[in-house]
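Quality-control log, excerpt.
Job 1 of 2 completed; input and output follow.
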Amino acid sequence: MNLYKTHIIHPHTHVPLIVYYNETEGFISFERDEAILEAMYHVERELVLDDTFQEGLRRVSHLCETQYPLDTLKEAKKFLRKIGINERDVYFETVYVH
């Protein structure tokens, strides 16, 4: 399996996400970056109570429920650009799966 990942901040909700691209299966998927969220809550405790940020968390949860079909890593980068992520800020790393 050829699996890649990168970390981004969603441009509209400002929620940290991990993006996975599975080259073997041909899809991109998202998950909330819980480690970064935890660090953010430690630094800015009021985020837990911030209605706008909490709404953003709910909105990205919908994004995380779907896998988006893409044939190449290049297409994955273009997809991220379409949702507002600067392609120069995206660095996919290879994930080694045992």
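Job 2 of 2 completed; input and output follow.
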Amino acid sequence: MTLIGATLNTVGLLFLTHAVYSTHEHTATFPHAPLPLDITIELLVSILVLSAGIVFTSPSLKPIVWARWAGRLSREGRHGEGKWTREGEEILSEGDPYAFLGLDGGIGGKREGRLGFWDVRGKRKEYAEWAKNGGKQ
């Protein structure tokens, strides 16, 4: 796939360069005339060929496993990044960058799982119990 992608990138870049040069020549020669259709088609084809070449040469995507990543961040906490300040102090990471969301308190935790989000079913149960007791806590 790398050879096909490199070939498509080269051909697309050549077409794109030629289309840009043709556009420059046309606008320099005929400043008020519209751009010819063949230059427009060449430009669009070059963009498509170049895009296909970029897709073929790009590395394969890796799956994102947020739960594993977030669990590792919460277990490790603050750790060194291997960077140092001018004063000689190590720069520490902040650990979990999403800790402010409060995701660790949900599903079996004491808080609602996400701060800023409302547990509708839990609130309905609380209201039903409150109504059963006649509006008293």
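Post-run check on job 2. The radius of gyration is 30 Å.
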